[in-house]
Amino acid sequence: MSDINFHMAGAGKWQKFFSSEAFYTLYERIYPEGMNLNKLNESDRDIIYQWDKVGFVEVKNNFVNPKVPVFTEPDYKKIKKWLIEVEKEYLKIINKHKEEYYSLARFISDGEKIPEEYIFTILLCAYTLDAGTLDKLEDGILGQPPSRENSGKYFLWGEKIDISRNYFGINTYEIPQNKLFSVIWMPEMRRSFKNVKSLTIPVFNSKVMEKIEKLCSSTSEELAQVFSSSIEKIKLNELSFANCSLKDVLCMLFHVGYSYVTDSLIEQEILSDFPKEITDSWGMWIWNK
């Protein structure tokens, strides 16, 4: 059984290209050295040709090279020093701005009646360390997500080692206004909330979003500069993903570094520890675009 877990940043449906265990096992067989197509059976070659069309592999001269990077234990050992350096620089920036984040979290929490440490987590993790910094990197060293034909535009990478399980990012789901209102104002919903003083899901209106953008955008810019300037310190040619898509490699390293930093923020009690059991509402919020 394969122990690769794939992750995506962007918008698309990569899962249809890994629809069963056989697909994962095949990718492990060809990663990282590649393989002569003559060593594969016909059904495996058909999968390879599908992957080639969306840039997951490159087929040339009857040989397949994997292009989706996979982060492994040996890779982690080789870049651990880099991770520690990035963590140190990230923490300097976060500590410089954390009082501003606390202040904004208190402001939002007072209006929403939701714990400010939860709002703080959303502001720092989702809007700054994750989406905010990724947006800045896409405008710079990373570029826009690659087009994968009709499956979407997204970065893709795999992991065979969990650096951290403390990952808090953004998955966006658009809720049509009429759909949202129909749920909020249903009579049975009003009855359900009769004895509830406040909702547990925060709602950020346009004025709040302006304040979030102002604070998080500038901090994210500083973090993106740290990441971009530090990449040259990594000896990519020594890693398993040396010949993989550079865009996907950089996106993977960004996410690995981010999760590594999150652990330190929790250890230093800048962030509250993530709950061991996630409730339906933890990690959810609504905002007005």
Structure write-up:
It is built from eight helices and eight strands. The longest helix has 40 residues. The chain is elongated and about 65 Å long. It has a three-stranded mixed β-sheet with strand order 1-6-5. It has a three-stranded antiparallel β-sheet with strand order 2-4-3. Strands 7-8 form a two-stranded parallel ribbon. With 289 residues, the protein is mainly alpha-helical. The protein has one domain.
| Integer tally of domains | 1
The poorly predicted ranges are 183-199
Write down the overall mean pLDDT.
87
- E-strand count: 8
- As a percent range, the share of helical residues equals 40-55%
- What is the helix/strand order? EHEHEEEHHEHHEHHE
Measured distance between first and last alpha carbons: 42 Å
Whole-angstrom Rg = 21 Å
Concise description?
With 289 residues, the chain is mainly alpha-helical. About 6% of the residues have low confidence.
